[in-house]
Amino acid sequence: MMQQIIKTFPDDKPLTSISVIEDISKRPQGFIIVSKTFDQDSDADLWKGSTFFGGRVSRYLCLSKTEGIDNYIVEDIAIIGEKDMPPDGYGLIPKTMDTDAKAWKKRQICYKLTRRNLALSAVTDIILLSKSKKAPEGFSLAGDINGVVVCFKTIHDLGLGPHNNNPPPVLGYSLNPKGIPQPTISPSPNGLYPAVASPTSSGDYVNLLRPKRPAPTPPIQSSPGLLSTSLVVNSPPEIPPKPQVPSSASYATLKVHEGLEGIPFVLHPTLELIASKGASIGPIPVIKRKTMEDLDREYAYDFRLERQST
């Protein structure tokens, strides 16, 4: 029955999305449910198990050729273990689309999405086999999930048209998005270099290559007799002198006040009088050196009054 349906509705359009559902009666919009196996026309459940209380658990594969990310197609699929990391560039289907439950048991499908104009191949169909372990003609074997064999069909002609013989661009977009006319190149008569044809009347290509500013004036070659003239012409502009910075200047971000700003440093009038008469000031008293213990003992304060007030 499934073979008759496939033969009746041939479709080589690439798949754009793959998902898994739990309830076969809730088909997602734009998806087709793979509910039957290709070889035996039997139930294509990928879980094949029940819950602890005896309830049935099922997982069904869904395919779409219209849903998914714009301009991306399924380039390849693979079967890996439930806890294995997918190959580089491949994506997983961790949850069911309808109930957001765990999608796989023991083994799972991963698939590779590629931009349509960069894809070298495309997966157009996925079938499931319940008894046969060999892929049908035109299909490739991906592996098995809980005893169900997964096969997929791949095409390499993506229908870009017979006029496009060049490979798709690596960047995926045009390097000349504004459509600026390019010069036509014809073979040179001597066969060494190609001859570029004259620019178009619109002048767009010429304006594209024309510099936006004039070239700088070349320096004047100086000679011993014209040294002073050369120096005047090519001398750089004078740099204003830097302001003198006092040695006591502060470079802190916030201004620091030391408490001595604006106070002149002068002698006491009595000392000035003694100094003017030439008299002796007298012996300078010797400051006794005190240790840390002497200072603690002399200026000790226990803050008893402050503690009592609190």
Automatic annotation (TrEMBL):
Q: What are the annotated GO cellular component locations?
A: cytosol; ESCRT I complex; late endosome membrane
The family database entries (InterPro entries) matched by this protein are listed as:
MABP, MVB12A, MVB12A/B, UMA
User: How the protein sits in the membrane?
Assistant: Peripheral membrane protein
Q: Where in the cell is it found?
A: Cytoplasm; Late endosome membrane
* Molecular function terms, GO-annotated: SH3 domain binding
Q: Which GO terms describe its biological process?
A: endosome to lysosome transport via multivesicular body sorting pathway; protein transport; receptor catabolic process; regulation of epidermal growth factor receptor signaling pathway; viral budding; virus maturation
- Asked whether the keyword Cytoplasm is assigned, the reply is yes
UniProt keywords, alphabetically:
Cytoplasm, Endosome, Membrane, Protein transport, SH3-binding, Transport
Q: Which intervals hold domain MABP? A: 12-156
* UniProt domain UMA: residue ranges: 260-310
Family indicated by similarity: Belongs to the MVB12 family.
Q: What does this protein do?
A: Component of the ESCRT-I complex, a regulator of vesicular trafficking process. Required for the sorting of endocytic ubiquitinated cargos into multivesicular bodies.
Record-given protein name: Multivesicular body subunit 12A
Species name for this entry? Nezara viridula
